Fold this sequence. Notes:
The protein is mainly beta. The protein has 2 helices and 17 strands.
Amino acid sequence: xxxxxxxxxxxxxxxxxxxxxxxxxxxxxxxxxxxxxxxxxxxxxxxxxxxxxxxxxxxxxxxxxxxxxxxxxxxxxxxxxxxxxxxxxxxxxxxxxxxxxxxxxxxxxxxxxxxxxxxxxxxxxxxxxxxxxxxxxxxxxxxxxxxxxxxxxxxxxxxxxxxxxxxxxxxxxxxxxxxxxxxxxxxxxxxxxxxxxxxxxxxxxxxxxxxxxxxxxxxxxxxxxxxxxxxxxxxxxxxxxxxxxxxxxxxxxxxxxxxxxxxxxxxxxxxxxxxx
Length: 276
């Protein structure tokens, strides 16, 4: 048996008294709320020398999806920590498989909305040159459109330049209409996707005509993006001199003949998508 003598009792009592004094003299955690360490989406206050925290509503970072997040409408772009990130590729079906789209993905727009589409940095302009030679004049046609091409927003841009004229051509040349036809693996038969009447005149060599054409006729793509091809046509009218007889002197007699014709460009590739 352990014997406890008076000296042991006094030592234990002294130790206990010391602990009481030390605890009573401990420095408080705070004196005012400003002394408390800030925490994300928490309201702090000093309560009896200790910091107490309460959750803050409408605050981005509190792990709660709310209509207002730190003064902004709540969504994936204004508060990804609560809503999750706006990211990931769109999906397309290839046969029975579902695969990631090549260009279309989720991203934050300029007005902080999570949209499905293609960012500007991933878009590249394409230019294709076609030569027109009727025998009476020569012209060049340049068509410009983006890759990939947003069917709901983008436009086809044409520049037609008169490069040379023959001696039997009677100026001016009138450009009257343009069409664009489209085909893809989902729509093998060509479909008219754009048509525009033109009131443009080429009065001499070097003259240019600029044409802008959106997809004016609705085409419903099977997938959010698809590869296809286009070809365009331009209707034009001009007059030419045609020998219709001879004068007694042997000099040719000419009459003016109106020619209405269409230039159809070769097929060109296009990568089509439709944004949300």
